[in-house]
Amino acid sequence: MIDIGNVTIDLNNVDIQGLSESLKILFSTPVGSVVLDRDFGIDWSVMDMPLQKAKAFLTIEYIEKVKRYEPRVKVIQVSFEISSIEGILKPKVVVELVD
């Protein structure tokens, strides 16, 4: 299982006011739940996918959604940490400022 509602965000020591909060909101919002922008958020249908396909799908989702909704940064890495006790994958997204 992937804990897509609890994503670690690494800003590479960049401290822009509101950036971390903006990304947390984007990554924890199910797509289709924002009335005036149904594309905002992450597609949670990933929960029904096989693990390897889900990881690839989420990687693409994070890259595309950051590019669209938070143009101040770009995704440079997406990885998944496993909790050995619970057996849950936790996404980690690393971003850097766009030049």
Short description:
This protein is an alpha+beta fold and 99 residues long.
- List segments where confidence is low: pLDDT < 50 over at least 5 consecutive residues: none
Q: Largest sheet, if any?
A: 3 strands, mixed
Number of helices: 2
Which shape, going by the Cα principal axes?
A: globular
Topology:
Layout: E1 8-10, H1 19-28, H2 51-69, E2 73-83, E3 88-97
Parallel strand pairs: 1-3
Antiparallel strand pairs: 2-3
Describe the structure.
The protein has helices at residues 19-28, 51-69, and strands at 8-10, 73-83, 88-97. It has a three-stranded mixed beta sheet, covered by helices on one side. The protein is an alpha+beta fold. The protein contains two helices and three strands, in the order βααββ. A hairpin with a 4-residue loop joins strand 2 and strand 3. The longest helix is centred in the middle third of the chain and has 19 residues, at 51-69. The mean pLDDT is 88.
